């Protein structure tokens, strides 16, 4: 049930509506409950702050007549209301105006409300003065392009009740009909009298004042050199108008060198700001993340060089306006890299708590990991691309092809602390680590394809495993980290200081790449990312090991990451673990023979690397990915589809939620 705290009659596109401000008794109740007939009368009442609950308050528009306008939304949540603007008086075009002699007045010579400070005589004023002294002629009245002139009786009734002048307000709100891509829409509401307009204007702004989660003053860092150099244009044309419409004061700083934003955050006073916004790519976000976390650690007298220390969550939130080349953070937290959607989530005050990992080497603190740490192939790409900066963005593709041709692998020793959800694999992993670590292990997918069905006397050996695989993929859809994720909301009962010997395993072998992912790693070139099922706030991260193989085997891994990373664990040369802590120790006699380490796109050094996760220690202006309802369709194409190449997997299309 819902209670109505304010109700008024209004006009939208010349159609009468009943505007109601309602408070639902339950947050989950978002349906439009009908009002009683006695509440359809106009109410002149003020709203009390005690009656407004921002999370469950909504604006409802009910057409008084049967005619409905598809442009008018039925419900607008108070959290999605951006701004309210009062309009000036405008003449009502729905009725014919008459002078004192009951003769029609030409609407072309009617003078509208003008600014009193302007004293210049316009053409309309001159025409009015001439018409007062001239001989009266039959004026030509323009007809409106409307079907209402065919219904003279209805038009006459409407003209009798409509006033000559109407005042109104203009509201801007967030359209969330598309759960992933948000947009701004406008709605003009006309009232019969100026008193009613002022009352509605006051009540709506009173409701907006209760939204305490919204920021009022932001500090924005714009990187004009990141990505394709479009950050400044994106911010000025797409983002800044939205902030201005929501009455948010923004202090903008255009960075001119690397680590300028990090140094500013660590040294300047930030008490006047409600949040920090980065306009750029993942590198710009890494600067803000490092500056804010290091500043908080210094203020709390935390020894950041201690690998066992727990970091503290800062009070400020970080907003990401994607304008880079990859935008993995924006893809992982909102579902796409749309600057308008990210700006609107900042304005409405959405909050998403994510995990951050600390990276330590033998000397102490090395870096924070927000997205990905890689040793081997991807680290070598970053190191090689830094030498080819004169090639521009093309250097990444050329460096990747160069490292693929080299096909280097590195002997490494790993100590893994498994998460609680991955402890069931401990026994199997230990047995595998005792033997040859380079021997291929047949994953579940290949066991299904090679298994037989005794109940059908082996007559349906391939159809049965495919059906099992279809069920496996459909059930996996619920494992995605999404908005209001239940997995991330579970209370953390793990003691970070305790050491569980049963959850610690050791691995040793030659690996082409070792990847630690705290986010899925989605981007324009990878629809699902390398680790689609990793959660952003559950206190764990994914460890993906790609063992040494022929170039065709590693090419198959890269192809699977680009096309569909959900089945990456089914590859014979790939192992995936859900862990809380990882210790990487390269075993190379010469330093030149060891691989390169990269964390969030920046090179780091160290002979021994320890990665440890910290749960929900950073707040972002983001809502999380909002998936559509799961459509029960066949996620796999016919198995008889022709392969494009024998070493590539069968291409499968999965009907995914909102992606």
Describe the protein in words.
The protein has 659 residues and is an alpha+beta fold. Among the domains are: 2-28 and 40-89 and 164-210, Roll (PH-domain like), CATH 2.30.29.30; 217-350, Probable inorganic polyphosphate/atp-NAD kinase, domain 1 (Rossmann fold); 357-422 and 501-615, Tumour Suppressor Smad4, CATH 2.60.200.40. Helix content is 25%, strand content 25%. The chain has helices at residues 123-133, 152-161, 194-208, 231-245, 260-267, 282-299, 328-334, 339-347, 377-387, 394-406, 426-434, 444-450, 463-476, 486-489, 551-563; strands spanning 2-12, 15-24, 57-63, 75-77, 81-86, 90-91, 165-175, 183-191, 217-222, 249-254, 275-280, 317-322, 352-361, 364-369, 372-376, 410-418, 504-517, 541-547, 574-586, 597-599, 602-604, 609-620. Strands 13, 14, 15, 16, 17, 18, 19, 20, 21 and 22 form a ten-stranded antiparallel sheet that branches. Helix 9 packs across helix 10 (394-406). The two termini are 34 Å apart.
Entry summary:
The protein is α+β, with helices and mostly antiparallel strands. It is built from 15 helices and 22 strands.
Can you give keywords for this protein?
4-stranded antiparallel sheet; ceramide kinase activity; Lipid_Phosphate_FormReg; elongated; single chain; Rossmann fold; DAGKc domain-containing protein; 659 residues; Tumour Suppressor Smad4; 10-stranded antiparallel sheet; PH-domain like; alpha+beta; disordered C terminus; 25% strand; ATP-NAD_kinase_N; NAD/diacylglycerol_kinase_sf
């Amino acid at each position: 049930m819902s209670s109505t705290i304010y109700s008024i009659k209004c006009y939208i596109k010349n159609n009468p509506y009943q505007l109601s401000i309602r408070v639902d008794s339950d947050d989950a109740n978002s349906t439009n409950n009908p009002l009683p007939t006695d509440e359809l009368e106009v109410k002149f009442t003020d709203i009390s702050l005690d009656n407004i609950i921002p999370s469950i308050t909504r604006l409802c528009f009910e057409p008084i007549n049967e005619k409905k306008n598809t442009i008018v939304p039925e419900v607008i949540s108070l959290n999605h209301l951006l701004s309210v603007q009062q309009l000036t008086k405008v003449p009502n075009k729905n009725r014919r105006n008459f002078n004192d002699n009951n003769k029609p007045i030409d609407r072309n010579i009617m003078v509208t409300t003008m600014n009193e400070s302007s004293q210049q005589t316009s053409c309309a004023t001159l025409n009015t003065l001439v018409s007062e002294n001239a001989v009266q002629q039959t004026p030509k009245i323009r007809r409106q392009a409307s079907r209402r002139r065919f219904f003279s009786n209805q038009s006459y009734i409407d003209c009798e009740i409509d006033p000559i002048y109407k005042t109104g307000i203009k509201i801007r709100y967030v359209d969330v009909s598309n759960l992933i891509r948000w947009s701004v829409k406008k709605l003009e509401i006309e009232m019969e009298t100026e008193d009613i307009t002022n009352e509605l204007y006051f009540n709506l702004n009173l409701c907006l004042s209760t939204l305490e989660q919204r920021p009022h003053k932001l500090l924005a860092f714009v990187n004009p050199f990141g990505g394709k150099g479009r950050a400044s244009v994106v911010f000025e044309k797409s983002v800044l108008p939205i902030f201005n419409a929501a009455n948010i004061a923004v202090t903008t700083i255009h960075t001119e060198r690397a680590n300028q934003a990090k140094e500013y955050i660590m040294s300047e006073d930030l008490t006047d700001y409600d949040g920090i916004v980065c306009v750029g790519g993942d590198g710009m976000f890494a600067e803000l993340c490092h500056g804010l976390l290091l500043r908080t650690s210094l203020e709390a007298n935390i020894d950041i060089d201690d690998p066992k220390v727990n970091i503290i969550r800062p009070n400020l939130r970080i907003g990401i306006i994607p304008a880079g080349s990859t935008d993995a953070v924006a893809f992982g937290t909102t579902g796409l890299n749309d600057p308008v959607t990210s700006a609107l989530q900042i304005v409405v005050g959405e909050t998403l708590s994510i995990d951050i990992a600390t990276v330590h080497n033998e000397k102490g603190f090395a870096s924070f990991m927000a997205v990905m740490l890689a040793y081997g192939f991807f680290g070598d790409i970053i190191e090689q691309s830094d030498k080819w900066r004169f090639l521009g963005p093309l250097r990444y593709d050329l460096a990747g092809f160069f490292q693929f041709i080299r096909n280097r692998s590195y002997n490494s020793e790993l100590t893994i602390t498994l998460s609680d959800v991955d402890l069931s694999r401990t026994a199997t992993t230990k047995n595998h680590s005792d033997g040859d670590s380079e021997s291929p292990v047949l994953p579940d997918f290949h066991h299904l394809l090679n298994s037989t069905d005794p109940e059908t006397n082996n007559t349906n050996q391939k159809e049965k495993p495919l059906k099992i695989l279809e069920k496996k993929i459909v059930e996996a859809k619920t494992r995605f980290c999404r908005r209001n994720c239940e997995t991330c909301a579970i209370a953390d009962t793990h003691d970070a200081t305790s050491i569980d010997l049963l959850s610690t395993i050791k691995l040793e072998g030659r690996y082409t790449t070792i990847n630690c992912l705290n986010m899925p790693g989605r981007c324009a070139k990878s629809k699902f990312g390398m680790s689609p099922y990793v959660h952003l706030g559950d206190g764990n991260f994914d460890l993906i090991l790609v063992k040494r193989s022929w170039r065709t085997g590693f090419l198959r891994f890269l192809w699977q990451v680009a096309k569909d990373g959900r089945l990456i664990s089914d590859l014979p040369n790939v192992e995936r673990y859900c862990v809380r802590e990882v210790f990487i120790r390269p075993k190379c006699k010469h330093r030149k023979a060891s691989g390169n380490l990269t964390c969030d796109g920046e090179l780091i050094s160290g002979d021994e690397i320890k990665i440890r996760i910290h749960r929900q220690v950073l707040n972002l202006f983001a809502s999380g990915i909002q998936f559509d309802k799961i459509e029960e369709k066949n996620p796999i194409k016919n198995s008889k589809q022709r392969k494009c190449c024998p070493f590539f997997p069968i291409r499968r299309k999965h009907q995914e939620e909102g992606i």
